[in-house]
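User: Can you predict the 3D structure of CLUMA_CG018032, isoform A? Sequence below.
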Amino acid sequence: MKNLLKKTKAKEFPINADNSNIIFSSEPQEYLGILNAGLSNGINTEVLLEEVTKYAQLTDIRKDPKKVLEVMNGKSKLGQNGAPLLMSFCARISDENEVCPRQNFTQNKLPSGLILIEDCVSEDLEKKILSSLSWSDNDDEKRNLKYRKVQHFGYEFIYGSNNVDPKSPLRRKIPDVCNDIWKNLDQNILPNFTPDQLTVNEYEPGHGIPPHCDTHSCFEDPIVSLSLGSSVVMEFRNPESSKHLSVFLPQRSLLIMSGESRYGWTHGITPRMSDIVTNVDGILTVQSRQKRTSFTFRKLRIPSSCSCSFPSLCDVKRKPDNIIEMHVTNELAAKLEIEKVHKVYNEIGSHFSETRHSTWPNVEDFLKSLPEGSILCDVGCGNGKYLGVNEGIFKLGCDRSETLLQVCLQRNFNIFQCDCLQLPVRDISIDACISIAVIHHLATEERRKQAISEILRVLVIEGTALIYVWAKDQQKDNKKSSYLLQNQKQEKSCNNQIEKTKIIFDENEIELPIHQNRTQFHHTNLLVPWKLKEKDIPKEQQKVFLRYYHVFEDGELENLCKEFKNVDIIKSYYDQGNHCVVIKKTSF
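Assistant: Sure. Here are the predicted structure tokens for CLUMA_CG018032, isoform A:
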């Protein structure tokens, strides 16, 4: 009994530290908390009810939490990896819920201009619409992408440029059966909306789409999406305010993105097999995804233009400094990063780690300046060389590379795997962050800004972050960076003789220059070689991997941070070929 109590208290402590809204109690309460399992590993109400009936005759586990604890605590084997469940009574729990409830959508919860209409079509109409599709392999207006099937109607949606060619209409028009969708709608909801372009995507369970905003100049307001076949949770993010909302889209629902939600928020779907949602009783549960077919209706804007007040996501008002980025969608950028960043670092991770053992003095100074007891998150920690600095703070590291994380595990560091664009960390929970040589691996300005947005989201008010990125100019005040000084042969790269390579993804391609190592950069977006040195392999036979980089112009990183209204730039400096900023979060 004492051993069980000790284990229970040990599990309560980190939960209390992570969320002050949860108060545990030794006396029976209305609420009962499970400490070592949850929705993420399949423990929902139905599973618990099935399990508790093995020990007691209960038809509703909510009516007798005391009985549930008595018969299951320390006995039921539903915990992680088959461990016994550990339970405690809760005197108070948080009212916050990241998922917008199915039965309680409110305008102050959803992004402005976002309208969700449940049961917009009947089951019969759903069948008719789906049966109107033909997925024949001989159809030249249908595409099989890597993770989904796609059909275009009216005009082809060109993924390489996130645009359409208004001079090249398709033979295939929007199916007439789709007109029935609008018949039962209130005309005040979609006044004068007659779409002329339709994209149909068929998603298998486990697949999703990266965060993106439909091109402002190409399509009018609104964008309308119909979900058939399955429900799903869609993620909405505001780059200006760093807000993130998860919106549940039930099967046969119609989502209307207009105004701010159309122009000022990105939307995407996280790849996973199930979603955490609220059921009809208002209880969180797990819902498995099924095959889902989405119908996205758009109306072309002719001529192309935009007069919106959301410049951060506007292709007209935001002018990228490199033509490549103007034609790279979020989906294409994600594929580029997977092939030329994530996969590469998994291959070269061990060799890369051997060359990354010395810490940068300015990064060390930042870490040592943090108050004792601070919580630090190293976003893109690599082999964890900064996780050993300052024993007086609690440090967490995260990275995409499994190979580099294995090095961290061998060094007994606290780490987890994730993408810097979506940190699985609570809002306002981290005292300080560092991001050293990470953001320059993201292929669009929107994605680089999203990475900074995630850092700001997890920081407490007055929390600070240090960010390092490669500088395009590797020579400052006539002093060469340490990167150039390693060029022992004094080789020079010539701008008009640099080799280029084409990277092909499905029907899209990106052409990027290949940089000559240890020389000055002449391009903003490029591929940097890494020669993998392996024992017993001749030098000329050693593999060469190409890593994608966006090298930053002078002032670019600082200007990117200035786009956030809740940021103060404490310090901005140049350090051995890197642009660096220290920023402070000033408000929510």
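The longest strand covers residues 459-470. Residues 95-108, 493-497 have pLDDT under 50 and may be disordered.
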